[in-house]
Amino acid sequence: MTDSISLNPLKKLDRGTLIACCLAVAAAQLCITVPSPINGEIQAAFGASGSQVAWVTSAFILPTAILELNFGVVGDLFGRKRLLVIGGLVLALGELLNATSQNITMMWTGQALAGIGAAALFPSSLAVIAAATPDGKDRAKAVSTWALSISIASAVGPLSSGVLATVADFRWAFVPPVFLGLAVAAVSWKLVTDSKAPQGRTLDWPGQITIAVGLTALLWGIIEGGERGWSSAAIVGSLSLAAVALVGFVVAEKRAASPMFNLDLLRIPSFAAAAVVALAGMFGFIGTAYCVSIRLGAVMHLSALRASMPFVILQLIPLMLAPVLSRMLTRVDARWLLMGGLLPMAAGQFWIAAIPITTTSLAAFIGPVLLLGIGFICVVSSLTSAAVNAVPIHMTGMASGATSLVREFGQGLGPAVISTIAMSAASSALVGKLSGADAGMEAAAGPLAVVNAGSDSARAAAQDALGHGMALGVVVCGCASLLGVLVTLLLVCRSTARSTADATGEPAEAAAV
User: Fold this and answer.
1) Which of 133, 294, 466, 472 could serve as 139's disulfide partner, Cβ 3.0–4.6 Å?
2) CB 63 within 8 A of CB 208
3) What span, in angstroms and rounded, lies between the C-alpha atoms of 452 and 301?
4) Burial category of 264 from C-beta neighbours within 10 Å (exposed 0-12, middle 13-18, buried 19 and up)
């Protein structure tokens, strides 16, 4: 993206364009965080299983991850202003479906549509800013404002969601994003100065189709495998399709004249390591957030407002630390920041796993959540710096985009895998402890159904079993963070070929997205 946007620079970034781009990315980011505090409300309203609730998050993140790279090309070819307007409208439509959903399938559809809209808004808003700021200092200032709007939206999203779900039906949490999407479309149409850079840009349809099929089939197989059985024909078929499609993606990218991802990047150890860290780190972070959300809402039945507090704290940390980290990125090598983020994340995750399931005091979560927040902003801020510093300068745009894709897929994978682990462990822990209608309820809908609608003794047993399962899931998240530490230590090397100044703009971009 970076290379193409410089081909058609605007004379100056006007205030209206900056406001519209910041509003666009804030709307997209807010939609990501809205479901976090109300997963328990969603589960109770629709009688959803653990895997079905996991799809609420994954249905949004998956299309964002797989479409973002090609939407960047679409904006370059046909104009970024048009993509901002369309993205805002699609986001609003998806959130309208969420706000009026009558079943979990309707909510998945709404989340997927909103994710498609977000996939258009993230790259096009950043590209418009970058095209209008050929001067490095102006660009850094504009991108910092863009990133700040994301941090603010990340903090506002869970809070507004928790408040609305507490005073009204949980569906009201999706109403503000509807109006935000419409506002993005209107403001972008009115204020944005358009830009595009079609020179040398073509859509990689074989690559886009194969990566979309591969990642979707893989995620579906993982999420559903725990409930349907790993040997079932549907799961075996889904995972086989994922393998074939991902091999097809490799073949397509090798043959493409203008690939969406140059596979030669994977031969660079530091870049490959950064991709692994992005996957493992974001898998662990979002997997932990999913467990905390289910624990506080669906298991302990806290109000949506109380359940939102850990997520508000979690998102405020990046907002407060972003200015400090932007300076640190110019003074501290990215690999040390990566390890300095992954270690607190792991500590926070193991701490959360050790908190008894019966604990309802939010004070018990402040310490580990602070560690998670500090670790998260350090990791995300330095990930792209480590990636782009490892590659030739003409490939930094692709490296940044590819890291973003892997990071976001890790966020989609986290709830999928951790839900499967937690619910499978909880079901195993309940074997022989339930009888009659309670046992039938567990067999049909899983332990979450028992903890909400079973007899008193069954609820207590299910609560203990879910505590065991979610603790195990969060431990897996902590181990993923430690894996990231090991990979960083062994493979992410200090860059001597690229100046730190070249990369200081990129981390803010990737961190926010």
Assistant:
1) 133
2) no
3) 9
4) middle
Q: Which pLDDT band, with edges at 50, 70 and 90, does 495 fall under? A: very low
User: CB-based contacts of 206: which residues, under 8 Å, 6+ apart?
Assistant: 248, 252, 255, 256
Tokens (6 digits) for 426: 């909880």
Dig out the tokens for 60 from the structure. Answer: 């949004």
**DSSP secondary structure of 135-166:** SHHHHHHHHHHHHHHHHHHHHHHHHHHHHHHH
When pLDDT is cut at 50, 70 and 90, the band that residue 6 belongs to is very low
340-372 core/surface letters (b: 16 or more CB in 10 A; e: else):
bbbbbbbbbbbbbbebebeeeeeeebeebbbbb
Q: Which helix (H) or strand (E) holds 476?
A: helix 456-491
From CA 379, how far away is CA 348, in angstroms rounded? 14
| Residue partners of 143: CB distance under 8 A and separation at least 6 | 126, 129, 130, 505, 508, 509
Q: Quick check: 50 and 102 in contact, CB under 8 A?
A: no
The dihedrals phi and psi of 346, each to the nearest 5 degrees, come to -60, -40
Distance of alpha carbon 491 from alpha carbon 471, whole angstroms: 30
Helices (H), 195-232: 205-228
pLDDT digits (tens, 9 = 90+) for 64-92: 888 877 787 787 777 788 999 999 999 99
- The sign of the dihedral angle between the CA atoms of 259, 265, 267, 271 is negative
Helix (H) or strand (E) holding 478: helix 456-491
Other CB atoms closer than 10 Å to residue 456's CB: what's the count?
Answer: 7
Amino acid in the structure at residue 330: T
Residue 271: per-residue pLDDT: 84
Q: For residue 283, which of 84, 421, 153, 417 has the smallest C-alpha distance? A: 417
3-state secondary structure of 232: coil
